[in-house]
Specification:
Largest sheet: 2 strands, antiparallel
Number of strands: 4
Shape: globular
Number of helices: 13
Organism: Mobilicoccus caccae
CATH class: Mainly Alpha
Keywords: Cell membrane, Membrane, Transmembrane, Transmembrane helix
Structural class: mainly alpha
Distance between the termini: 43 Å
Membrane topology: Multi-pass membrane protein
CATH topology: ABC transporter involved in vitamin B12 uptake, BtuC
Strand order of the largest sheet: 1-4
Main location: membrane
Helix content: over 70%
Pfam family, one: BPD_transp_2
Length: 328
């Protein structure tokens, strides 16, 4: 009897740590989702108007531009890089979309192609500077931040440019759903597919984990890094088009500071600034967390100044979690 009773006790001692580890692993993998649920709960308790369909659609629209920028940023951060230019590139792309119609006289639908193309070119320049010019990503993209913003001011003359109907339609609805939300969902699906289902996507994790080992394994590191920044620019161009559609005009000073929100969304979503880890769904959740916080604080009539303080604390907490996870 003693021997029989001892067996279950041993089993119990081995099962408990397994359960604890599985819970810890689940929380580590889904911490952003838990955070989003908690933030939504707090906002609902603070203001019941938060969990209404019109307001939730408004949250999605507010998150759309930052989320699309953040999806492009996800590719970069997975490779242990950074892109500080996405806000300025988004503004330049929108200005280019307006310019091809207002000045060049091209048809409105061409503007829908001009903006992403402008972003792609800007990102390609940054990628070449990082991959082949050996410039630190921080410096190369900081330079592009200034160049793109300056070009946006030069091309527009410092004045807003009205958007053609083809672009302004991006600020409307389709079958009752705001178009920015549809663009967000398509961008999320494309990002998830590239990261999870393509050789290119898997190579990004290898480069971010150990660039030298990836090179020795035969991966085209320079070409891949160039493509990563080009993708970031492309997504910035799309985000700039959506923002211009919402405003019905291209503003040369638009999207200022959005690069910080994009980086924050990626980090809050669980990506590591050290590279090698990141998920499209995590980035989406990170962007939604930022949008929910801002929307809830607006409903509570909190001033924009205090909103910046709260967002800064959230970013600091997310980076702190990333540091602790890296040490573990």
């Amino acid at each position: 009897m003693p021997a029989e009773s001892a067996t279950p006790s041993k089993g119990a001692t081995t099962v408990a740590p397994e359960g604890k580890r599985s819970i810890a692993t689940w929380l580590a993998d889904n911490g952003a989702l838990v955070g989003l649920a908690l933030v939504c709960l707090v906002m609902f308790i603070a203001t019941p108007a938060f969990l209404t369909v019109p307001n939730l659609l408004n949250v999605g629209v507010q998150a759309a531009v930052v989320a699309v920028l953040a999806f492009g940023m996800t590719f970069v951060i997975i490779t242990a890089g950074i892109d500080l230019s996405v806000g300025s590139v988004a503004a330049l792309s929108a200005i280019c979309a307006g310019w091809v119609v207002a000045t060049a006289g091209l048809p409105g639908p061409v503007a829908l192609l001009a903006a992403p193309l402008a972003g792609l070119v800007a990102g390609l320049v940054s990628g070449v500077a990082v991959a082949y010019g050996k410039l630190p990503a921080f410096i190369a993209t900081l330079a592009m931040l200034s160049i793109a913003r300056g070009l946006a001011l030069v091309v527009s003359g410092g004045r807003p440019i009205d958007m053609p109907d083809a672009v302004a339609a991006l600020g409307g609805d389709l079958f009752g759903v705001p178009v920015p939300i549809l663009v967000l969902l398509v961008a999320w699906a494309v990002t998830a597919f590239v990261l999870n289902r393509t050789v290119f996507g898997r190579s990004l994790y290898a480069i971010g984990g150990n660039e030298e080992a990836a090179r020795l394994a035969g991966l085209p590191v320079k070409r891949t890094l160039t493509a990563v920044y080009a993708l970031s620019g492309l997504f910035a161009g799309i985000a700039g088009t959506v923002l211009a559609g919402r405003l019905a005009s291209a503003q040369p000073q638009a999207a200022a500071g959005y690069e910080l929100d994009a980086i924050a969304a990626v980090v809050i979503g669980g990506a590591s600034l050290a590279g090698g880890y990141g998920k499209a769904t995590g980035t989406l959740i990170g962007a939604l967390i930022l949008a929910v916080i801002r929307n809830g604080l607006n409903l509570l009539n909190v001033t924009a100044f205090w909103q910046q303080v709260v967002i800064g604390l959230v970013i600091a907490a997310a980076v702190g979690v990333d540091v602790l996870r890296s040490r573990r």
